[in-house]
Amino acid sequence: MTITEPVRRLLAQDSSLAEFGIEVLSAGEGRAVLHMVIDESVANGHRIAHGGVIYVLADSAFACAANSRTPGTATAGASIEYYTPAHVGEELVAEAIVRHHTGRHSLVDVTVRSGPRVVAEYRGRGAVLRRPDSAVGHRTADQSEER
């Protein structure tokens, strides 16, 4: 399991993956593979995975792939298409790949599967976050005290 240092730093600050039972298997060179098992806690009334949970898995794979290539990237926009349901007890694997990156922007595709069956396809657009002290009109605490 190889996970690049920028992704390790990101994961150290993210408690959401543990809440959903998501495990990062690998993340590096613009690719990432994440895994989770659908259990009762994330099933809806149809006894299938809630679509939001599949989105969280895909978006987390997006984040790992994008940040392995361009640290500081966050989702700026995304869409997801659901093809087949994921049932309680099924294992899901999300595979992400950076298709394009330049400057502050990236495009990442994620496929979520249960075995060979495609559950969903996600496409995310990423942008590198600006540091809070570089935002137009924003003053740091030190700058505010100087005035």
Give a structural overview.
The chain has 4 helices and 6 strands; from the N terminus they run ααββαββββα. Strands 1-2-4-5-6-3 form a 6-stranded antiparallel β-sheet. α1 packs across α3. It is an alpha+beta fold. It has a single domain, classed as Thiol Ester Dehydrase, Chain A (Roll).
Overall body shape: globular
Could you give the count of β-strands? 6
CATH superfamily, by name, is Hotdog Thioesterase
Indicate the mean pLDDT.
90
Remind me, CATH topology?
Thiol Ester Dehydrase, Chain A
Task: Enumerate the spans where pLDDT stays under 50 for 5 or more consecutive residues.
Answer: 134-147
Overall structural class, as computed from helix and strand content, comes to alpha+beta
Distance between the termini: 51 Å
Radius of gyration: 17 Å
Residues in helices, as a percent range? 25-40%
Short description:
This protein is of the alpha+beta class. The chain has one domain (5-146): Hotdog Thioesterase (Thiol Ester Dehydrase, Chain A, Roll). It has helices at residues 5-12, 16-20, 51-69, 141-146; strands at residues 23-28, 31-37, 73-82, 91-102, 105-114, 117-128.
